[in-house]
Amino acid sequence: MRPTVVRLAVPAALLMLALAGCAPAPIYKATANNVAVPPSQVAREPERYGTSDVIWGGRIVQVRNFADHSEIEILAYPLDGSQRPQSNDTGNGRFIAAMPGYVESLDYPAGGLVTVAGRINGTRASNVGQASYTFPLVTVNQSHVWTAKEMSGGHPNVSFGLGVGVIR
Hints:
Oligomer: single chain
Number of helices: 4
Helix content: 10-25%
InterPro entries: OMP_Slp
GO cellular component, one term: outer membrane
CATH architecture of the domain at 39-152: Beta Barrel
Radius of gyration: 21 Å
Distance between the termini: 43 Å
Strand order of the largest sheet: 1-2-3-5-4
């Protein structure tokens, strides 16, 4: 290898390692029973996924509280490597996250981003506006509402470009 190539390869490799170290680790570990399918697919074929475990996330649409549990309707988005919802992507359907006890709607605000880990527990037919809709139900074991700082963290502020400048 020529010395010039080596001098360029070492800094490039170090830069790649540094950038890879910026992304936070996933918050939930997948179980042996986990399936990596979007809620829209589970809604189409609920019998195929039975009581599989999922790690899903998205934007909170609304919270409904009942006598013994709460339900959070979520517009699903794909998750990044840190399990943060990618809200700039297209939605992957909606699902209902069922949580034991009372959930404070201020802790799970409409429009907020959330990731949940839990088990598929059937589906429910309901409506989104005037349209009929089938919601997968997820019994939640763990949940995390993302802050703006967490959503922007782990993204290095590095950019590359070419340009021409004029100094007067």
